[in-house]
TrEMBL record:
<keyword id="KW-0997">Cell inner membrane</keyword>
<dbReference type="InterPro" id="IPR043461">
    <property type="entry name" value="LpxH-like"/>
</dbReference>
<dbReference type="GO" id="GO:0009245">
    <property type="term" value="P:lipid A biosynthetic process"/>
</dbReference>
<dbReference type="InterPro" id="IPR004843">
    <property type="entry name" value="Calcineurin-like_PHP"/>
</dbReference>
<keyword id="KW-0472">Membrane</keyword>
<dbReference type="GO" id="GO:0046872">
    <property type="term" value="F:metal ion binding"/>
</dbReference>
<dbReference type="InterPro" id="IPR029052">
    <property type="entry name" value="Metallo-depent_PP-like"/>
</dbReference>
<keyword id="KW-0464">Manganese</keyword>
<protein>
    <submittedName>
        <fullName>UDP-2,3-diacylglucosamine diphosphatase</fullName>
    </submittedName>
</protein>
<feature type="domain" description="Calcineurin-like phosphoesterase">
    <location>
        <begin position="11"/>
        <end position="202"/>
    </location>
</feature>
<keyword id="KW-1003">Cell membrane</keyword>
<dbReference type="Pfam" id="PF00149">
    <property type="entry name" value="Metallophos"/>
</dbReference>
<keyword id="KW-0479">Metal-binding</keyword>
<dbReference type="GO" id="GO:0008758">
    <property type="term" value="F:UDP-2,3-diacylglucosamine hydrolase activity"/>
</dbReference>
<dbReference type="GO" id="GO:0016020">
    <property type="term" value="C:membrane"/>
</dbReference>
Length: 244
């Protein structure tokens, strides 16, 4: 696959957790379509939907208009989609959008600065404790998901409805105590000196010696996203489209 260069004015979005009651990401995509927001590159850092799994057909109806719009936008915008733990096995939905599963994360990219700085991108549900990592990977198994889809259909979609109901009740913004210490331990698994993750919803930037770490905010809260600037140093400018 062609190397991905992060361009100036690239947009990074994580954890939109889009559902029937939360449609901020849809409005964002419409703004892109209508050139109210302009970029040549969009990075989706996972959990864009509360639930979207290719094998589970009950999750498709809500998401398909988004899939179609993303594919339309991908004609003129490079769109990179890193799967999360709420949206995965997505490759069959897309032809133009570049999808990276958990097995292909962290994704190594280059910044378009003079130093051609390397950066690793990941949703954040990697490098976890072995048992939890095993469970997350097992849940992505095609045959298991087909079986779960059958059971879900058999019981009148109660499984997916329960998941979505719980997601609606979930508090998306909460401070993780000692998150800096958690990050300091996590970055040992990475190979570059710049790391970007979603998943944790912490909206923080840390620098440990020469290593820089950015954890993106949840878009679902204030519809927050970052725009990359080279000034000449690499900067991430946060935009908030709504008040809390």
């Amino acid at each position: 696959m062609q190397e991905i260069i992060i361009k100036e004015n690239a947009i990074f979005i994580a954890d939109a957790h889009e559902n029937e009651n939360r449609r901020g990401f849809w409005e964002f995509l419409q703004a892109l379509k209508n050139d109210k927001i302009k970029t040549s590159q969009l990075f989706l850092m996972g959990d864009i939907f509360d639930l979207l799994v290719y094998e589970v057909r009950a999750t498709h109806e809500f998401a398909l208009p988004y899939v179609e719009l993303l594919e339309e936008l991908a004609i003129k915008i490079e769109i990179v989609y890193l799967e999360g733990n709420h949206d995965f096995n997505l490759a069959n939905f897309f032809t133009r959008v570049k999808v990276f599963s958990i097995d292909k994360q962290p994704l190594l990219c280059n910044f378009e600065d003079n130093a051609h700085t390397f950066v690793e991108l990941a949703h954040g549900d990697i490098f976890l404790k072995p048992f939890l990592q095993f469970c997350l990977k097992s849940l992505r198994n095609h045959h298991l998901l087909c079986f779960l889809n059958f059971i879900n259909n058999l019981c009148g979609f109660k499984i997916t409805q329960k998941i979505l109901t719980n997601q609606n009740k979930k508090q998306l913004v909460r401070k993780i105590n000692n998150f800096d210490l958690i990050v300091k331990n996590r970055i040992k698994n990475y190979k570059t000196k710049f790391i970007i993750e979603g998943h944790y919803h912490q909206d923080v930037f840390y620098k440990f010696n020469e290593i820089k770490y950015l954890n993106l905010p949840t878009f679902a809260y204030k519809e927050s996203f970052f725009i990359v600037k080279y000034e000449p140093e690499i900067r991430f400018h946060k935009i908030e489209l709504k008040e809390a």
